[in-house]
Amino acid sequence: MRMSLTGWLLRSSALLLWVYISNGFGLAGGTPQYVLTNDDVPPFFTSGVTFFTVGAGGALTLKEQVSTEASGTGGGFFATSRLAVLDSASAQCVYASNAGAGDIVGIDISTLQIGGTASGSSTDTGISNGIGLVMNPQYLYASFTDVNTIGTFQVQPGCSLTFVNDVSVGGLQGGFITSMAINGSTLVATYGDGSIESFNISSGTPVSNGDKQNSTAYLSSQGATYPNGIDITKDGHYVIFGDTSTDSVVEISDISGGKLSPTVSYTTGHTINSSNVMLSPDETLLYISDSQGDRISAAFFDASTGTLSGKGCASGRLKNYDTDWTYTASLGLASTTGTGSVLYVAEFGNTSSIAMVQVSSSGGKCTLTEMAKSPVTDTYSSWLLSITTFPPRPF
Amino acid sequence: MRSFSRFSMAIAVCGISFASAVAQCPARPQPGTVLQDTLSLNSQNGALNAAFTLAHSVDSNGYTHYCYKYNSSGQVIEAPTLRLNPGDHLLLHVTDAITTPGPQSASSMDMTSPPGTVACGDGGTATINSTNVHFHGLNIPPTCHQDDVLTTLIQPGTSGFQFDTQIPLAEPPGLYWYHPHVHGFTEFQVNGGAAGALIVNGMEKYRPEVVGLTERVFVVRQQFLVPWVPGPYQLTVNFETAGSIQGPAPIIQMKPGEKQFWRVANATLQSFMPLQIWFDSVPQPMQLVALDGYPLAQSRTTDTILIPPAGRAEFIVQAPTSTSQSADFMVLNYNTGPTGNADIEQPLATIQLVNTASAPAASPVAAAAAPASQSNLKFSGLASATVTATRSLYFSEEFGGTNGPIQFYITVDGQKQKVFEPNEKPAITTNVGAVEDWTIENHALETHAFHIHQIHFMMLEVNGKAVANQDFRDTIEIPYWTGKGPYPSVKVRMDFRDPTTAGTFVFHCHILLHEDLGMMHKIQVLP
Q: Model pTM?
């Protein structure tokens, strides 16, 4: 049963007030807190970004889909983030890539209107596996996974972009770029052939730090494991890689010296493919999406030493696995502090959805419990891989 | 990366195929018509001598055809059934007449063999236009001109290649099949229909239940518009499209109450086929007499027969007695797991009752001169043979994304997971005389079909429990892992006692995409 607009507004306002006061989930300003999806649907369909408002206890309510007026591809690399959020003093934008059309669309979060659309060079495309996005307040970087380029776009007012240039990249064995992460002046990339590389982006365009290397787990597994998803600690000291594997492998590299050090490999034991990883805001937990399976897990992380420890914890089988959805992909968090409180998980399938998992952690133990109202269906996509949150995690 | 390039290649093939529709292959039957058995070529005076040309074309619906063409008195027949007796020689000349233009012909697979290995056939680089032939299930040597898929290549534009092998005297009578097996490109050609039945005569000597029955041979194939792109597929029976919402089912004609002996080969790329006979939508009993070309120790009655990709089943079907009953030859839904492909329920054929005069012309199985004992067949006595080694293997998969790259592994426990490379060393080395028990687990969230060349194996256990029937198989399904609990497994007994097993051959998943992408390794049997 649908609620009337007036009723919805009244209840929403009350909820927001209550959230702000009691739970710390809301925003002080007028912009709601959102979970965003990139509904990257195949050619002949129109993609868009769906906005879910975050309510009490992290509950999600569909607000609307903003059409990005172009087609996507429907699936692709698990760890290619197809959304990037800008939350600066002057602008609040979400950028979404359309893999089918090869362009990037900026949406003003305060108005939910498209600010602009930008494309890379004439050969830049990611139609097979997606176009990945990361950004800082000055530049947005797009990984065109089909042609192995990183496009640099300058952020413009009104959530628009200007294409600057692109640079060719590639793995040691010729692998295609699968994921990127940035922190300060560093951009880190993974390639689908087991190699990793960092770049200096202090002048805008990425310049390799000359540290391209095969990961430790890739070498020890003779190619059966390779880094895919990436996160970087708040201080930029450590880079964490979630590996595509038949096991649950996470690798950590020290980049404090300006180059990636050889990775240290961990097998966390809870999943069978750990392609997507994300640190909690307080950096005590590393969340791992079981991309090829039915659950998510968390490992304890020590940001001072860059190490994983303890047994961590895993959720049970997330609801509707193997009936509505098949893969888990990217992660988001309800809160920008602490453990993040509620973990959002993109579920890819015939009926794509967002799982909501309550996080609890104390005394060296943690639990991950899927919430009663989970999952929330993303009615606009059967191919959901990328979600993010607004406001974003602060690093 | 490999998946990506193959995805791109598939797109290219699709595009080029539409652009180069040259009708090299014979027309296939119209949907909804009476199902005919394919022409049989029978051995004479101890030999079957035939010549096939593998050609290629695209039909009006965009489906690519790869066809084994046989010239029969000026008429071109597609993929005839080969029939031989134990001890007969098979002399099969295969010419590659594929003339696919475009970029996909440049896609190649390194078929470089280890040093000291002599190339068989035309040599060169394997491309999508190269071919060879695997005689699936036949217990014949893995050597050049017989059943070698590791070094044999037949290239377009050459004079072709002569296969010359002898059906062993102790070969189990039953249904086998032949198909191309060029690593990296098998799926394309089998998807196009390059597959046919091969029958070793003599089933009636071991399973007298079939004596006097009308025999039908049904080869179920599968075609995708582009085999690497998930999407709708068509099943065909003897090249006639199976029933679906798009069209009527083929018609099998039987007399009321008649028993027939059906020999069904699953020549699909990936479909697991639970078969049933329905009367008014109610499953009926079938009398199963052989699996994978090996007569059962005792026939048994069942209402469902599961045939994995590449498997075969031979069974007796009885028609309804009344025309008021509808009768269908069904394949049921099969859940291949979260990362597997959907195998959907559909009628393979509708059974139509006819009178004697209009019954299809098919050869009844001859009466046996004398029953024979299964102790005469290969692998007899295996149950009580001394086991010389045990091994554990497992299937696993890793997905970098929904569209790939996906790595498909079959791994000998203790070794590193790696995809097959033609120039790799054997993953397993054993000796002639060995009898080995292999436990094969499935660590993947998708059902796999284990197949080994050159020999049949004896079923021992499923999921750690002894099987009720120690059937001999050459292909067996291992259901998907759910993500928790013990891995699904089968335990089988491998028989390398026969000196003709000496050589190097392969074991792999018979989902052909998986095999093409490397879910395969070599075994070397030392003399």
A: 0.85
